[in-house]
UniProtKB/TrEMBL annotation:
GO terms for cellular component: endoplasmic reticulum membrane; mannosyltransferase complex. Residues 1-17 form the signal peptide. It comes from Uncinula necator. GO terms for biological process: GPI anchor biosynthetic process. Keywords: Membrane, Signal, Transmembrane, Transmembrane helix. This is GPI transamidase component PIG-T. It holds the Pfam family Pga1. GO terms for molecular function: mannosyltransferase activity. The chain crosses the membrane at residues 200-221.
Amino acid sequence: MIIIYILTLMAYKGVFANTEKVIFEASKSNGVLHGVDYHDFWNLPLEKLSPQFGKLKTKIFAEFPTLNSTYGRESWFLLHGISQRHRYEARICWTATQPTSFQLVTYDFVEVLQSLDLKFSLEKYSMSRKLGSSGLNTIGNKYFQDLKVSELNASSSLLLQIFAAADYYTTNASLMQYPQPVQVEIILDPYFLNIVPKSLIPTIAYILILVVGGWSFSIFLNHWAQSLICNINIEKKTNL
């Protein structure tokens, strides 16, 4: 079992070399919100993820850390369809050619409403989304637009805040002042039995098949070798 665990970790880290993640469980506190509050959040121009549409390729703007923004530039996303008491993992993956430091934090709606800083940050990002072009994933958002208020209340929703800080140095003054947007993939990955991310199940199954197959073959090989030795000993005795 230890070998399987080590191999799994190696495979996991090998696939997502440039990855930052946050592990969380759905909160119950959103239940105190009224329908109008859900609509206020739902109508924000945020890109959305759910277990049904758990992958989003997009660009995130980064900036170098300053006294006012220690962890870089903030972006916000809406996570929907999260079941209570279930564990989830939100990951962000990016290429090594764009050195960036990411930090991920999740909040429920009540936490954002009760914090002036979080509320201002969310409103500021939403305004920038309205002024700019919205590169939303159309398939996923068609699904989200069809949801009713009752369905929003029934399932848990969270807000994902991502900090992106440029993590490089160059003699190019333009790049030092205006870092290029980072091409990323954001993944919402539910946990299987609250133990392991579902995306790892195929890898674990493959490793288990290799281990069981290797163990069975070693037993067969051992029996074959013992049988061969016995036959050789019998032939020697008969020749004597």
